[in-house]
Amino acid sequence: MIMPLTTTRIGPDWPCQVKAPGSYDWERSAAKWLRELVPARYAGYPALIRHPVLLARHAQIQVQQEIRVARTALQTARADLPRLGLPESVIEHTIKLYAAEVLQLQHIARSVRAVTDALAERGTTGR
Fold it and tell me: Are 39 and 59 in contact (CB under 8 A)?
């Protein structure tokens, strides 16, 4: 039986797009998933390509910022949206959308943390 190269445990927050730590090519799958979370222009920076843990750090910051934006949109929707002339049904739907987005982003943030921890534990600093 082949044992994984890391002691990181996969929990409910581990993204299904990323292979298990220690499995063949898992760092590449992690980097691919992380690149999808940051603006496209960042995905081409050599430092982020060579150091997946650095890419993970940037993804953490990016997702935290998106959470702040979604929370602000949620908190201000009831006051701001009526001034745009939107019907109440659209406003209510939008509030539910923002609330769901905050929950989804929080889950993504936990997933990024799990991947970051696994990359850092592995000492992944290059290819």
Answer: no
* Separation of alpha carbons 103 and 101, rounded Å: 5
Give the pLDDT confidence of 56-94 residue by residue, as tens digits: 999 999 999 999 999 999 999 999 999 999 999 999 999
pTM of the model: 0.85
CA angle 3, 127, 63 (to 5 degrees): 90
Which residue, among 18, 22, 19, has the nearest Cα to 8 in the 3D structure?
Answer: 22
If you average pLDDT over every residue of the chain, what do you get? 90
Residue 46 CA from chain centroid, whole number: 20
CB atoms within 10 A of CB 17: 13
Quote the distance between the C-alpha of residue 17 and its chain's center: 12
Task: State residue 94's pLDDT score.
Answer: 97
The residue behind tokens 């889950």 is 107
Write the CA distances from 62 to 41, 46, 115, integer angstroms: 13, 18, 15
